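Q: what sequence does this backbone want?
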């Protein structure tokens, strides 16, 4: 039997190892307290500046279901969800992210969350009645990476509309799939999230071991969140899943017909990382939303970790479609627990955009083969 402890090149062009090959020389201390048992990413709370415009985008165009709403906040869920919401749109003066919220296995896990983050010296707040409607006892923290993170178990159950095909749109969003966070020091962030119980499924590195991004999971998919190298803390995107690829194409067609194609930032396409089919949209405040489908099962304890070469032109798009610069550089600010934007720290390691597009010609389709400086069809 072959051992996967060594880095093994696959026939698809990426590498696999048994353990995540990421090391940090600048770790957040590992707490003695056990981390809470996290089930999955559950919802994001977004601050939006124009509630009517955001409602039009998320409800009328993308078809999310309104669980509850009033003049200042809208609670939305995907069609297969049974908890109160997957997305909160709260009206505020500055667009940003108020919470990345995870569901934990039981109410007792909240005590563990308090102990874990308190030991790290983080700001921790607990509200027995929850920070939002439909959610009970909750803990919110400003984590060591600067992100506002929430944990909860208690939630109001609402009807799972999966059987209501009369409500399905051609582009129905069926589940919340993942978050994506921008952070300057990816190995430091990975180590901290591993201490919190996450496992790495994929990453992007270069020949010097610089890590550009990593995908980490609790549920048995490729990720619950991704850590993307860049100036941070910022929120890169929140992703909803559709059942099939054609649902994503239907969303593109609908946006075209509504003369809203300017909301499409990147895609549709097939990712290399995660193998998923994707589309990136920007909402009326510029918050990025990914529509995502058909990644793979990762739940076995010896699930192979995939590592991509940053110079592999198929890592971000399997068809080699170039990544647009705004996708690398733009992201949403995140708020502290008082609702003020967190200061952004610049990344000091090399940027993925700088080493893979432009005049450097570093990207390849076939490793070891001399490639033209630009992909066919490149536009300056
Ligand atoms: Fe994503």
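A:
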């Amino acid at each position: 039997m072959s051992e996967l402890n060594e880095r093994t090149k696959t026939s698809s062009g990426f590498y696999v190892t048994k353990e995540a090959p990421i090391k940090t020389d600048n770790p957040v201390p590992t707490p003695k307290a056990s981390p809470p048992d996290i089930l999955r990413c559950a919802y994001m709370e977004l601050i939006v500046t124009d509630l009517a415009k955001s409602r039009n985008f998320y409800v009328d165009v993308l078809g999310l279901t309104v669980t509850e709403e009033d003049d200042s906040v809208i609670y939305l869920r995907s069609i297969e969800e049974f908890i109160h919401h997957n997305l909160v749109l709260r009206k505020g003066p500055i667009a940003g992210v108020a919470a990345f919220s995870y569901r934990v296995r039981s109410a007792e896990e909240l005590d563990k969350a308090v102990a874990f983050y308190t030991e790290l010296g983080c700001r921790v707040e607990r509200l027995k009645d929850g920070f939002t409607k439909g959610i009970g006892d909750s803990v919110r923290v400003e984590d060591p990476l600067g992100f506002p993170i929430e944990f909860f178990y208690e939630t109001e159950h609402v009807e799972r509309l999966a059987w209501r095909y009369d409500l399905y749109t051609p582009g129905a969003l069926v589940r919340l799939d993942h978050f994506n966070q921008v952070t300057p020091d990816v190995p430091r962030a990975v180590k901290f999230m591993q201490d919190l119980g996450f496992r790495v499924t994929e990453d992007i590195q270069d020949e010097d071991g610089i890590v550009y991004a990593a995908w980490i999971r609790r549920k048995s998919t490729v990720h619950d969140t991704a850590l993307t190298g860049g100036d941070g803390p910022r929120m890169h995107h929140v992703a909803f899943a559709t059942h099939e690829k054609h649902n994503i194409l239907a969303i593109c067609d609908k946006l075209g017909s509504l003369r809203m194609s300017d909301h499409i930032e990147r895609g549709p396409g097939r990712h290399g990382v995660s193998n998923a089919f994707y589309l990136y949209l920007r909402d009326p405040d510029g918050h990025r939303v990914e529509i995502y489908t058909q990644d793979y099962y990762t739940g076995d304890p010896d699930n192979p970790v995939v590592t991509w070469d940053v110079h592999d032109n198929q890592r971000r798009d399997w068809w080699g479609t170039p990544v647009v610069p705004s996708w690398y550089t733009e992201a949403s600010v995140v708020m502290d627990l008082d609702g003020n934007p967190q200061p952004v720290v610049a990344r000091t390691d090399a940027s993925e955009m700088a080493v893979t597009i432009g005049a450097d010609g570093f990207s390849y389709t076939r490793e070891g083969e001399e490639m033209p400086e630009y992909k066919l069809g490149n536009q300056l």
